[in-house]
Amino acid sequence: MATHSSSSPILCASFNQDYSCFVIGTRDGFRIFDTNTGRLCYERVLGAFIIVEMLFSSSLLAIVGAGEQPSLSPRRLCLFNTTTGAALRELNFLTSILAIRMNRKRLIVILQDKAYVYDLNSLTILDTIDTVPNIKGLCAFSPCLDACYLALPASTTKGSALLYNVMDHHLHCEIEAHRAPLAAMVLSSNGMYIATASEQGTMVRVYVVSDATKSFSFRRGSYPSTIYSLSFGPSKQLPDILAASSSSGSVHLFTLGFAAHQSRSRRPSGFLGSIMPGAVTEALDPADHHVLHNAVPAGVKSYAIIRKVENVTDTSTSEVLACRAIMSIITYNGYFQEYNISIDAQNELSWTLGREFNLLNVKALSS
Ligand SMILES: *[C@@H]1O[C@H](CO)[C@@H](O)[C@H](O)[C@H]1NC(C)=O
Ligand SMILES: *[C@@H]1O[C@H](CO)[C@@H](O)[C@H](O)[C@H]1NC(C)=O
Ligand SMILES: *[C@@H]1O[C@H](CO)[C@@H](O)[C@H](O)[C@H]1NC(C)=O
Predict the structure, then answer these.
(1) To test ligand 1's pocket by mutation, which of 55, 84, 102, 105 has the most ligand atoms within 8 angstroms of CB?
(2) Which candidate, 255, 249, 135, places its Cα nearest to that of 195?
(3) Which of 27, 33, 77, 170 could form a disulfide with 91 if both were Cys (CB 3.0 to 4.6 A apart)?
(4) Does the beta carbon of 37 sit less than 6 angstroms from any atom of ligand 3?
(5) Which residues in the chain come in under a pLDDT of 70?
(6) How does it sit in the membrane (predicted)?
(7) Is the pTM of this model over 0.85?
(8) Phi/psi of residue 198, nearest 5 degrees
């Protein structure tokens, strides 16, 4: 999430791997917030930042300058310790850094035509992947060490992605997801699913990564809008929810409980599986798709995540009465919103704005 827009006060925004914190980069510096309480936890006024990524709730940040100050080059990655307030290491590249991803073992650096895979602790390069021109720095990375996949665009004319296993250093499969080039993709935190959206289409597709044959499609509306963010909910197991924010101002929720019953791992091991668009086997029931109309201002970039999902059960019969979720949204005009969402047994959606505040006005609590 590092797209620069001259008019928005927020240059970049990212949630950490378990959604417990989020970081925003502004023209003045960067700020870390606690997602649960909305508290401003950390702030540095150092200049403009175009990428700020946090590793879980650790003291490690990966930061890249926006190039507005000579000392903050967009070609330099700085690993920053928030406890000491000092740089740990710096890595310089020949071209601008477009995206950074991390988990506890790997650091991924995305440039326009390359992806570098580093060992996070030693910072030795483990892999250099040549990519098609990737000017938006599109990528998806799973923080899970058991299914540690990196997805990169495979084409500039079609919506296909290559999935690499960056623990074992091999190409896992190619997914031909859409006819038009990819606009967004995300891997679930357990590495089990990948969701994709194209630049032109109205479909969001979900694939089971281990099984290179299954796919599911959601039609998110009749009119194409730009997908600003795609993210899976926090569940380690199903059911999970996929959230997509878009330029129309709507946020779409896709419930994925269905896939619990799908058979997995039909792909022979060691074989480079390929998913063809024709293999889209099941269009999902529209019942699995809910829309929050005008949840965010239309045309303003936003980043929506589902932070919490829980069942409400009848204590005497243990029957599931509803599924409740909390959705957190960062809008690049400077706001944080939190919606309480409930989907009842009749599949009726209800939602209320639980909280909203300006991310730029919040003052750090004096400690
Ligand atoms: C940051 O500094 C603190 C204090 O010296 C240290 O305990 C911590 O391990 C450091 N974090 C990283 C990511 O190196
Ligand atoms: C919620 O209920 C569904 C069945 O309706 C079940 O499969 C799922 O495991 C439950 N989730 C949680 C988090 O308890
Ligand atoms: C939203 O959910 C949170 C946590 O479940 C709860 O504390 C809060 O009161 C709810 N707010 C609204 C407006 O329903």
Answers:
(1) 84
(2) 255
(3) 77
(4) no
(5) 1-6, 212-215, 236-239, 257-287, 365-367
(6) Peripheral membrane protein
(7) yes
(8) -100, 170
- Does residue 352 have its Cβ closer than 6 Å to ligand 3? yes
**Both structure tokens of 69:** 């100050």
- Residue 349's nearest CA partner among 292, 267, 283, 276 is 292
A 10 A CB-CB count for 165 gives: 17
Tokens for 18, please give them: 């378990």
Q: Which of 307, 339, 340 to mutate to test the pocket of ligand 3 (most atoms within 8 A of CB)?
A: 340
The two three-digit tokens of residue 359, written as one number:
């991310």
Q: What is the pLDDT of residues 223-241, one digit of tens each?
A: 778 899 999 988 766 557 8
pLDDT value of residue 320: 83
